[in-house]
Amino acid sequence: WKTVEDIPPCGLFDFPDKEKLKFRFAPANEDFEVITLPLVAALETMTPSDRYLLNPLRWHRVKEQLSTGEIEYPEMTLGLGREPDAPALQDGRHRIVAMMKLMGMVTAPFAVDPAHATTVRDFFNC
């Protein structure tokens, strides 16, 4: 897929209201800070060819998790993207796309290493 609009709707699962979605930390990142970021801008830290390249098994798992009303925070880091030392999505592409497509979300909380939090906030103006 090239855009979120290209992705077909889900006929298998029902999803809670976006306001009721609960986030949890990945076990290794429980000491990370939480920063709310715009989903499209977070996805745009990846190369265009990777943004909507979704693994079918992961895509199904994310839809199933979202249908339960709880999911792990996506993660933002530094230096993995197109620009060195700029914020880049570390983990959560499938979650971001699903939140946008299936739940109509525009922003979401992200887990960010405290050492990168100031750079991430400055980059996204938050």
Describe the model.
It is built from five helices and six strands. With 126 residues, it is α/β, with parallel strands linked by helices. A hairpin with an 8-residue loop joins strand 4 and strand 5. The longest helix has 13 residues, at 56-68. The protein is globular and about 40 Å long.
Bin the strand percentage: 15-25%
Total number of strands: 6
Radius of gyration: 14 Å
Tell me which oligomeric state these chains represent: single chain
Dominant shape: globular
Question: What is the helix/strand order?
Answer: EEHHHEEEHEH
Number of helices: 5
Class derived from helix and strand content: alpha/beta
Largest β-sheet summary: 4 strands, mixed
Major sheet strand order: 2-6-4-5
What is the straight-line distance between the termini?
A: 30 Å
Unreliable parts: none
Helix content: 25-40%
Mean pLDDT: 95
Outline the fold blueprint:
Layout: E1 22-24, E2 33-38, H1 39-43, H2 48-51, H3 56-68, E3 70-72, E4 75-78, E5 87-91, H4 93-103, E6 107-112, H5 117-124
Parallel strand pairs: 1-3, 4-6
Antiparallel strand pairs: 2-6, 4-5
Helix pairs in contact: 3-4
Compact description:
The chain is of the alpha/beta class. The chain is 33% helix and 21% strand.
